[in-house]
Specification:
The chain has about 425 residues and is mostly helical. It has helices at about 1-15, 15-30, 35-50, 50-75, 80-100, 105-135, 140-170, 175-200, 220-235, 240-250, 250-260, 265-275, 280-305, 305-340, 345-375, 375-390, 395-410, 420-425. The protein is globular. The two termini are about 25 Å apart.
Length: about 425
């Protein structure tokens, strides 16, 4: 066992410098992601007791992201990508500070805090996606995302439990508010640490070409449809666990515990899959994630009680990383192919891809809000997820079509590799 662990460490050290720095940067920032993704939504839920405000907050976040993607493209002409990446991470703490300063959680204040958080995600994901694309290739992307998912899931074991019970054990409302303020300060410190790690890399900006296009190869439109389907779930799935648990259990401690159950098994599984999976396995991985997501939605809708929430979280712990593990390499492979064919910079595709995600996110959030206002919050929380999960199953066939068409356009893109651990050093010499 020890030898195997040493072998894995040596394998990671054999990767190029920028590969290691990007992973470590994201590892540090991952410590605050449960706070940003889950506990800010729980804060809104606790102080407003209104799930629709949580979804509106999420919708303002997702509105800020594509706008910032566009702004980021222009800023890359003037600033190093490391600076913009760091700004994105630190803005998440700024957004939390704005939220905590609000005396009343009205829609205006929630909208401002959400927009700032959206800008944070916009700068973070625009630059993170480009750097991940630039430092990896189709042969080692499963390894890269498998390793990232492994670290993220391990962190999800400790952080949600620690934070959840830290908040719950405070007692009165004033002390709970103070606990959230302390967490905000810690988020700010950790984002600074992540920025320091980021500046150890020698990341270079994308070659500055035109990055706004309205006509693309037909293959790209297929990927945009896949992005729309992916965005459907993101419309409110990030905050759905917080809303469900705060509504049905009412405790941050239970929220943290539920987030951590099964996370160790999920982390190890994701690392093994990412380490050994070949490009030809991506559809199977993707399908497994989508089926598990549908199972989670059905269990939640049928039971809609404490047990249902716990089972929902367990299924989701496996479903989401499986989908991401397959989705990102498929997306990046299409960008590799089309950037060569259409002779466009990669960032043009990253920017346009965000538009597809946004349409899906908007439709996902709108589905929840229509059910909530047209029927009830309970109906929305029970059935919106089921509707979206069933629609997302079509992603399997869309992804198959993308891979098939990519193979026809560029046969070299489908050359299967041997196991990742045996080829990485040849593909990316240290």
């Amino acid at each position: 066992m020890l030898k195997k662990l040493q072998s894995e460490i040596l394998h990671f050290k054999s990767q190029p410098h920028n590969f290691r720095i990007l992973v470590l940067t994201n590892l540090v920032y991952a410590i605050v992601l449960p706070v940003i993704d889950i506990f800010v939504a729980a804060y809104v839920m606790r102080n407003s007791n209104d799930p629709t405000k949580v979804v509106i907050y999420q919708l303002t976040i997702y509105t800020g992201i594509p706008i910032t993607f566009l702004l980021n493209g222009w800023l890359l002409k003037h600033f190093n990508i490391r600076k913009l990446y760091s700004v994105g991470m630190m803005l998440s703490a700024v957004s939390m500070m704005v939220m905590m300063s609000l005396k009343n959680l009205d829609l205006t204040g929630i909208g401002v805090a959400g927009t700032i958080m959206g800008m944070s995600f916009g700068f973070y994901w625009a630059n993170r996606d480009y750097l991940a694309l630039a430092i990896t290739n189709d042969g080692n992307r499963n390894y890269y995302y498998g390793m990232e998912t492994f670290f993220y899931t391990i962190i999800a074991v400790v952080v949600p439990v620690a934070i959840g019970w830290f908040i719950e054990l405070q007692g009165g409302a004033a002390r709970v508010q103070r606990a959230y303020m302390i967490l905000t300060g810690l988020v700010f410190i950790i984002t600074i640490m992540a920025s320091v790690v980021c500046f150890r890399g020698t990341f270079t900006n994308p070659v500055q070409k035109k990055y706004i296009y309205f006509k693309f190869h037909p293959l790209w439109y297929r990927l945009l449809f896949l992005a729309l389907l992916k965005g459907l779930a993101q419309g409110f799935l990030v905050t759905a666990p917080a809303m469900l648990i705060m509504l049905l259990l009412g405790k941050e401690g239970a929220l943290g515990t539920a987030q951590s159950i099964g996370a160790v098994i999920a982390a190890v599984l994701m690392y093994i899959i990412g380490r050994l999976a070949r490009p030809k396995h991506r559809i199977r991985i993707f399908a497994a994630g989508l089926i598990l997501f549908t199972a989670a939605a059905l269990v939640n809708g049928i039971l809609f009680n404490e047990l249902g929430v716990i089972l929902f979280m367990l299924f989701l712990l496996l479903a989401k990383p499986l989908m991401d593990l397959a989705y990102f390499p498929i997306q990046f492979n299409v960008i590799d192919i089309l950037s060569r064919i259409e002779k466009r910079g990669e960032f043009a595709y990253i920017l346009n891809h965000e538009a597809g995600l946004y349409v899906g996110r908007f439709l996902g959030a709108a589905t929840f809000l229509l059910l909530a206002y047209g029927f009830s919050t309970e109906v929305a929380l029970r059935y919106a997820i089921i509707i979206i999960a069933v629609l997302q199953l079509s992603s399997i066939y869309v992804a198959k079509g993308i891979i098939k068409q990519g193979r026809e356009i560029d046969p070299a893109s489908d050359k299967d590799s041997t196991a990742i651990h045996s080829i990485t050093n040849e593909l990316i010499p240290s």
